[in-house]
Design a protein that fits this description.
This protein is mostly helical and 298 residues long. The chain is built from 12 helices and no strands. The protein folds into 2 domains: 39 residues; 210 residues, Orthogonal Bundle (MetI-like fold).
């Protein structure tokens, strides 16, 4: 073999052994997971930027309006911020911190809301699977759905005390959204899916766990989000009724009696932020569990 042939053969071996760089478009097409992750991250950052911009615009407009009105009963974001700092550092008039008030309200909401989910989901599934049970008991269930939880506060004060009172009231507020979501969701189950399971010898328990419940779960989570909002509405009204020393509603009521509006607004903002965090947690769970769902936009 000549020297030129040996050189060509050696160069071919080197080229064959070296990794070949793919074009950028090909490499991107070979990593759909990384591309989807990058798309989600970009979308999240854009959404965060827009939310921050909208928040800044609202706060700026609020502050300008406060300056124009010039009333001690219409505080601006700056005054509310310093009221928040004062409450966080020094506590309220009784020495109780914002953490104490916030944790008391969150604990009550979580207990009452948890009881509503534990009771509402099985009962909704039961009556959805056996419509005759729901039809024959509507005259008892439906009237309770239209009685606002606030109307139960006088009876709750008479019959209950402490955590039991708040759990009872929040349970009433959050139960029916969860129950109704589970009840209506059962009707969305495709009959063909249930029949396929029966053809292959699946038991009723297997169909319930692998067909009915996964189909109804998106509706249940939607009902839980609605019930969570009702729970916060109920706890604030219940705490405003008195008889306790801790809770954001109680703190707001105390400062309202002293006509200190910034501290009242601090309680309102905290309730909104705590509700937002809880709602976002449910949204994250929903997105994780139901990535297969279509998102329709215009």
């Amino acid at each position: 073999m000549s020297a030129s042939n040996e050189a060509e053969a050696g160069s071919l071996q080197v080229v064959a052994g070296a990794p070949t760089a793919l074009p950028t478009g090909v490499a991107a097409s070979l990593s759909p997971v990384a591309s989807a992750r990058q798309t989600r991250l970009t979308g999240a950052l854009v959404s965060l930027a827009w939310n921050a911009l909208v928040l800044l615009i609202v706060l700026a407009g609020w502050q300008i309006l406060t300056i124009l009105i010039n009333s001690r009963f219409f505080p601006g974001p700056i005054a509310i911020f310093w009221a928040f700092v004062d409450l966080a550092v020094n506590g309220d008039t009784g020495g109780r911190t914002l953490w104490d008030h916030s944790w008391a309200s969150v604990q009550r909401v979580l207990i009452g809301f948890g009881l509503a989910v534990v009771a509402g989901v099985p009962l909704g599934l039961l009556m959805g699977l056996y419509p005759r049970v729901y039809t024959n008991s509507r005259v008892v269930l439906e009237p309770f759905r239209f009685i606002p939880p606030i109307a139960w506060i006088p009876l709750a004060i008479i019959f209950f005390s402490g955590m039991t009172r708040f759990a009872f009231l929040i349970f009433l507020g959050a139960f029916f959204p969860v129950f109704t979501a589970a009840l209506v969701g059962v009707a969305r189950v495709e009959p063909i899916h249930r029949k396929v399971g029966l053809v292959y010898g699946a038991s009723k328990g297997w169909i319930l766990a692998h067909v009915v419940f996964p189909t109804v779960l998106p509706d249940i989570l939607g009902g839980m989000r609605v019930g969570l909002g009702a729970a916060w509405l109920t706890i604030v009204a219940a705490e405003l009724a008195g008889g306790i020393s801790l809770g954001l509603g109680r703190m707001m009521s105390n400062y309202a009696e002293l006509v200190q509006v910034p501290q009242v607004v601090v309680g309102m903002v905290l309730i909104g932020m705590l509700g937002l965090v809880m709602n976002e947690v449910l949204l994250v769970v929903e997105k994780r569990l139901f990535r297969w769902r279509w998102q329709v936009s215009l």
